[in-house]
Amino acid sequence: MFDLKSPAVMARYTGTGSALFGLALLNGLFTILTLGIYRFWGKTRIRRYIWSSVDLGGNRPEYTGTGLEKFLGFLVAVVVLAIYLGLVQLILFYFGMHFVLEPKSEAQALMQIAVVYISLFAIMPLMIFARYRARRYMMARTRFMGIRFGMDKGAWGYVWRAIAHGALTVVTLGILLPRQTFWLEKYKTDRSWYGDQKFTQDGRWTGLYGAMRHVLIGLALVVLGFVAMVVAGVMAQGSSGEDLSAIAMIGIVLTFIGLLWAAIGYLYYRVHAYRYLMDNTILMGRRIFRAEPRTGRIIGIYILGSIAISLIIGIGMLLFGAIIAAMAAASQATGGAPGPAMFVLIAVLYLCVFIAAGALGLVFLIQPIIAHFAETLTLTDPSIIDEVQQRAYDPAADAGGFADALDVGAAI
Amino acid sequence: MTAPEVPSGKIAASFYDGLSARRQPVLVWPSEDQRMLVLETSEGHQFLWQMNRLRALRDQSDEKSITLTLHSDEGDEAPRDPARLVVTDPLAILWFRRMVPDLGKRDVHAGTVRKVLLWLGAATAAMVLMLFVILPALSDYLAGHLPVETETAFGRSVMRQVEWMVKEEGAGDLTCTNPDGLAALNRMKDRLIEGRDLGYDLQLSVFDHKMVNAFAVPGGQIVIFRGLLDKAEGPDEVAGVLAHEIGHVAARDPTRIALRAAGSAGILSMILGDVSGGTAIAAAGEYLMRASYTRDAEAQADRYALGLLDGAGISAEGLAGFFDRISADTDMLPEYTSSHPLSAGRAQRAHDQAGMQGDTRPSLDDDDWAALKAICAKGD
Q: Is 4Fe-4S given among the entry's keywords (chain A) (predicted)?
């Protein structure tokens, strides 16, 4: 029972880097030894650990998915995808061949490249489908206080909406991105359940424009930079002078700053769109979340995490390099050519770096970001949850298998 | 260390009944015969949990608590009852860990092994069917229905790409243009294909590059590298290799194999996933698979070439000699890893064929052979 005297509960995150690192390292090792099959069990163990690291008023969520069902779901997905992809790729390539000419101009060369990318559009609907299914599986396998979350079917409805919204955003040069973000999130939230209670996404899509502000500032700077460059170019035709190159220089600097600003602004947009959408999520008639993650903190995690990872990997590679150099020197001293032991060692080094990089990324980037999102989440009205009743078990047949096969979806 | 004592009296724990989202404080104690765990809520409701069915959740973050559940073969994704009991009392945790041997047991639903085997078999069968039956058959069908002009245009594009790949920086057009050399090459071609309809208008070119190789691209176009002419010990060697490439053209191999490759691209890497070395393994797997397709095609082209040589009255010894000389370089690895059959075997078959041939005469006279060897020489 939540303490009724405290009206809001802030989440804590208790996971440690060392525990997760051990888990990830073991997963990487087993995954290689089993030619990739263990990854479904590995992913499941990581999720169990991360879910159970969140603490909301002394209650921890539970991830109940199993590696076995994930493996089976993957097999199902592989059969479907192998048939679909094989046929679609072959037929697209066949028709693509009709457009291939000996490239005589740059335009023709570009068109040929475009033809190659048509097959990407064939996979895109499946990737969107996979993302919805993966989220549904994740919801169906998450419990809080013993009660299942859930999500209704509706992946195909999501696919065409996502494509239509995406196209609209592209056509309007990103101006309608908030509309896309809002309606797609609303589609998913409105199909989500906690026990027998349904979530509702409240709010308006125009409410996300506040979050867009830094993207827009960045783009404005880029436009200004371009204008400056064009002005410098036009004036250069008339006269010559050093002040012109100064204007061009300013244009270049402005464009560069604008691009950087827009990139960070996009991160700001993602964070603040999440805040807006969470704050307007309704369960049992109330806004039950307050989300306050900060963009600056996330950038900080990225920077510090990247430095830490590079340092550790760098030191590790130096050590290995020294060992290999020593072995090479030893084999030369005895007059022999570098033996197979050398190649085995290099292969092992490659795999070690790969496993370590994955594990370190989890520990220094992914977990800290999850922790930040968890620790800035408040359950504003926990007492109402008492009335929520259990919902039926969802078999969720593909268990996120499409996302695993197409390599889309969440970081964990 | 002795077994910890049964916690004196009753211990306090938290209970989620799996029916509603409520955490209930409960008192927990083992029954007298130790076979049951008794849970009592503050309202006085009692639950009896069988000790041997107790399981603890795995990979949990909180080291100061254990979450207990019951083994139960129905309903959930894992064979577990939806109810949960969270114990934080350190002594009680120790007691559970020592007294319930099955606490960490992994259970699976009945019939799981059968299900896994069934799906594994179905998935494997579907993949094999796709990669080795459907895609090849469809590629062959489509290759047969591709208009020759389209094929030729595609082949030219491939040729330009190859030229671009092998070209050294700054080098100009690689195609050799000496008219006497080209005339000689065409005479050799005409003699080989005399009276045959390949379905294409054969076009030969020579690339000015030191590689000892030749290849056919879609649309009846064959490229010979200068290196092959330089290393050849006589015109019959070149004729043999040319006959082999004509064999590929006759079977539409370049088009068929390009279509198959497009269909199977990415399927293996999808299965192996984004694991370390996965990409490398997938690439190797795709290579082996393609090699098995092409090995058959190569053997067929060899047979076709021997037929052409025979018909034109050119000795197969030339081809045999060529295979003999390259076998030192090509036969270091077992056949199944290679896109071509072992050269030693190919040489042997050509030797055998030569032994059965009647009168033969060289594929080019000395003047033409000299002209062909000089095909890449720049004009005066």
A: no
